[in-house]
Amino acid sequence: MSSDEPWFVSGFRAGYLELYRHRDLASARAEIAGLCELLGLQPSPAQPVLDLCCGFGRHTLALKERGFTVLGLDLSEDLLRHAQTEPELAPVRGCLVRADARALPLRDERFGTLLNLFSSFGYFDDGGDRAVLGEMARVLRPGGNLVLDLMNPSRIRSGLVPRSETLRAGGLLIEQRSLSPDGRRVFKEVEHRLPGGPVRWREAVRMYEPEELDALLDAAGFGSIRRYGDFSGATFSAEAPRQLVSTRRR
Q1: Mean pLDDT across the stretch 22-29?
Q2: What is this structure's pTM?
Q3: What string of DSSP letters covers 6-52?
């Protein structure tokens, strides 16, 4: 791992798949089923879906299985490469593209729905995050759906576990978590101690309070904002496990 790499490059190499192995195809299918029921999403060739920051394409596959026309996009070469070797992901191998969310290589108003799932927003500085929202608005059609699946800042702050150790894949996985001084960014330092030597990486995700996020969405051209506590549509509160936001491009 190069110390010159930004964390959102070094943090999504092959070790990421081990750290988040519970984020599998079964959970992706359940989450997409929940979203379709909650938001009334229906497949339509005229309204394709963009799975932005798709990782190895687990939600992309779940969408495709339900009949959606879908494109997955991610920056990680390692995660996209995993999709090329995993037999169960074969149906989406032609649907995954490598690109940066701040500058999407896509034409204006191409998509009817855009999904950004599993805490995949807040990776950059404030200007970078605004650029991502601007690109989301640009590639969505007027009236198009945007779904953001984010951390709930109140729950993270109250329940942060500073350190945990887990035996995984023949090694010891050590995770150390902390908050920035202003409490807006959550850091995770990860070390996977393996027989061949340790593998280390870090994460640094910006958390957004509901009011702060709503202001950014409004400035980017989104309205009709709804917020839920999970994929079942539970009421959002300080204790909710997730901050699931549904909004539309004006």
Answers
A1: 88
A2: 0.95
A3: -HHHHTTSTHHHHHTTTS-HHHHHHHHHHHHHHHT----TTS-EEEE
